[in-house]
Amino acid sequence: MIYQIYPRSFQDSNGDGIGDLAGIEARLDYISRLGVDAIWLSPIFPSPMADFGYDVADYCSIEPIFGDLAQFDRLLAAVHARGLKLLLDFVPNHTSDRHPWFVESRSSRQAPKRDWYIWRDAAPGGRPPNNWISDFGGSSWEWDEETEQYYLHAFLKEQPDLNWRNPEVREAMSDVLRFWLDRGVDGFRIDVLWHIVKHQAFPDNPLNPHWTADTRERDKLLQVHSTDQPEAHTYSSDMRRLADSYGDRVLVGEIFLPNERHARWYGTPEHPQVHMPFNFQLIESAWDAAVLGRVITEYEASLPAGGWPNWVLGSHDAPRIAARIGEAQARIAAMLLLTLRGTPTLYQGDELGIGEVPIPDDRMRDPQHFREPERGIGRDRSRTPMPWDKSANAGFSTAEPWLPLNPDWPQRNVSEQEADARSLLQFYRQLLGLRREHLALSIGSFELIHSINDTLVFRRTYEGEELVVALNLGSEPRLCEFPGWERTDAVLASVLGAGMFTGTLQPDEGLILQLRPGH
Ligand code: NOJ
């Protein structure tokens, strides 16, 4: 299990209202008690914070708000001392516009690093070179007055895209990976990996026939020519080769694509790419048994031989799961996440069931909100500080936190939930413990039994152990009989904390059932 930390919001140690590395170190026992295997840190590198760290101004140093390299080394050692792994966030598609590489690149058309970024002449009439739309809305092209060309930015204009077709860029980025691997990090989550190469001729992207005005501007076009190019696969297998040369390291790619194209990012046995292309389908799909049943089976079927699955339930980019499906179903989601085949990723705070956090207008920070304010797509409500206890500012900081806390923090915090055997936090711990004890839950085979009538039921089997996970995704009692249900031996976990299985699921109930060997 991977636990995602959003460093600005985990724990502040120096009273500036923003989390930092020393804060994370101080909370490692919490993470270790949760029972996770690895921590992924969202970017901690020097950054003007136009996109809160996803605009990197120096790949080989630490943002002073977060600490310094010595503090990073202490944190890494402390993580390793607890038997945990540490993954950093590698942001290859773009840098900050303040990165010295870009400063040099934009200084003149003759600058040695001009070609490190993507510069193009204006189209007739001074228009941008093509119709590409930034993920944050508006054209992907920004005009540079000084040198009279446009540069490409798939995200903010403060995040110019690197030119990965340039071998010097690839070498510089390999050096970045080596810098951290040499320091001992266990791998990387790679930001928007499928974006890193664009079509060489920069053709217009086709219109998306399904776009409607209430969805994001980005989705007006299909990103056919601006993403998922063949060369990006080549470069991702280069990254894998580099990581493999360090031994036991892992690469996780942030990739949003339909199954068939998504699966290609595993690569082939001869040319492996990332170990795990992040699978966001639990976030993207309707919370409905039939839909999820289909999503799980189709995803499983799409995996290449030996491709290890993974499931992500939340992130700093997505609405909180408890806000989306409600508190009762958030427990079902926990059970689902931790009983599916493959590596689960849990986002900080979801283990507490943090739900909707209203952010007053004057406290909004996310550029995604400011670019398209009318759409309600700001990500601040998923980035609020961890509530640790009942003390001032929830124990997160001695100062006013950079974003507001969840409104129910005096009750919904780590210390309250540690003291309550029935809390979501304790449930996560129990599920993680079970997952370790019963290999059927992690590496066992997966078989969907049914996904109808609000119930999602599947079997996990490993070396003679047969477990059935039965989830009620609705708020009515549901009959839930399946072949062999009478063989129920034990209820290993129950969302509601009840005892026996009677062939019926209570509203919002989920169970992990152990079956006696069948014949
Ligand atoms: C994906 C990151 O998760 C998101 O937070 C960021 O805004 C974009 N990449 C751009 O780097």
Summarize the structure.
The protein is of the alpha/beta class.
Detailed description of the structure:
This protein folds into 3 domains: 2-93 and 166-431, Alpha-Beta Barrel (TIM Barrel); 100-152, Oligo-1,6-glucosidase, domain 2 (Alpha-Beta Complex); 445-515, Immunoglobulin-like. Helix content is 25%, strand content 16%. It has 15 helices and 18 strands. The chain has helices at 21-26, 28-34, 69-81, 100-105, 167-183, 230-244, 259-263, 281-284, 289-302, 321-325, 327-337, 367-371, 414-418, 424-437, 439-442; strands at residues 2-5, 38-41, 85-90, 119-120, 141-144, 149-152, 187-190, 250-253, 276-277, 310-312, 343-347, 445-452, 455-462, 465-472, 478-479, 488-494, 504-505, 510-515. An 8-stranded parallel beta sheet has the order 9-8-7-3-2-1-11-10. A 5-stranded antiparallel beta sheet has the order 12-13-14-18-16. α5 (167-183) packs parallel to α6 (230-244). It is globular. The two termini are 34 Å apart. Residues 51, 54, 91, 155, 191-192, 254, 316-317 line the site of 1-deoxynojirimycin.
